[in-house]
Amino acid sequence: MAVAVARSRRGLKRLVVGRPRGAAAVRGRRRRFVPGLLIMGVPLVLALAGPLFAGDAGPRGTSLTAGGGHLLGTDFTGRDVVRQILLGGRSVVLVAVAATALAYLVALPVGFVCALTRRAWLEELVMRPLDILLSVPSLLMILLVAAVLEPGPAGLALLVALVAIPDAARIVRAAGAEAASRPAVEALRMQGESWARMAFGYVGRSVLRTLAADVGVRLTGAVYLVATAAFLGVGVAPDAADWAVMVDRNRTGLFVQPWAAVVPALLIVALTMGGNLLVDAALARGNPEEESR
Fold it and tell me: Which of 76, 120, 165, 237 would suit a FRET pair with 231, their CA atoms being 20 to 30 Å apart?
């Protein structure tokens, strides 16, 4: 009887002591998302909700001047910098997100086909053309195509997705090859399961952490390409309300009126940095070793 009571007391003590540890772990996991949300939240809110609060253009001021009712001064053409910032983020964010989604819409089935196939010729047939695209610098390909087609925002999203597909497909294939060689996949084949169930139901879930990390890197690369293309005048008008265009057009007056170039540049940096921090936090949430730190 005494032994049973002692055991029950020890079990009750572990239960009581374990509760705050569990609550602390949950709070720790939530705190991991705070830096990414704070950093990414500002440019994301400005990009998505900014046009709703931009208001009318109003009279233009003198080029690259502060004051006169303009909180951050005016840009190179006398337009209010605050209004241009509110209007200039939506194109960067939407084009980058759309390009990343389109790239993975193609890369996932292509990579899983190569990972699950038993025919070497099929893998060679699919991957070798992608290797050719991979050998061409991304920005160079965008500029070459843009010189002929002059794409708008939708065309720029397609171009950025096109240059991202080869690398993304190789990541998916490399990550899925190990999972596709497991006995569980062979058992699914013997049970007559469909290819989609094997690819997305088992292999896809097995490599989810790797793909989530790659999505964060891919989104950052897409923002970089979209901003660089806009900086070079591809996909947007030279005087468009766009963060990257603002950096390009106002850099000549950087020491006279820095806000017109520095603020949109910082917003682009915050967008990419915050996105990577959120992905890191999401990955650490599923890692017991990271959660225990």
Answer: 165
**Selection from 216, 267, 222, 218 nearest residue 81 by Cα:** 267
**Residue 112 contacts residue 200 (beta carbons within 8 Å):** yes
| Phi and psi torsions of 41, nearest 5° | -65, -40
In sequence order, what are the beta bridge partners of 70? 67
CA dihedral 272, 273, 279, 285 (to 10 degrees): -160
What architecture (CATH level 2) is domain 90-241? Orthogonal Bundle (1.10)
Count Cβ neighbours within 10 Å for each residue of 11-50 and write b for 16 or more, e otherwise: eeeeeeeeeeeeeeeeeebeebbeebeebbeebbebbeeb
Cβ-Cβ contacts under 8 Å for 253 (sequence gap 6 or more) = 63, 64, 76, 260, 261
Lookup: tokens for 211: 């793909």
Nearest CA to 227 among 149, 138, 166, 144? Answer: 138
The residue type found at 187 is A
pLDDT in tens, 183-233: 887 787 888 777 778 888 788 788 888 888 788 788 878 888 887 887 777
- 176: Cβ contacts below 8 Å, ≥ 6 apart: 111, 112, 115, 116, 199, 203, 204, 206, 207
pTM comes to 0.73
Count of alpha carbons within 13 Å of 225, Cβ hemisphere only?
29
Each domain of the chain, given as residue ranges in start order, spans 1-89+242-293, 90-241
User: What are the E-state strand segments in the chain?
Assistant: none
DSSP3 helix / strand / coil % (the chain, rounded to 5): 80, 0, 20
Per the document, the length of the chain is 293
* Nearest of 236, 64, 1, 49 to residue 142 by alpha carbon: 236
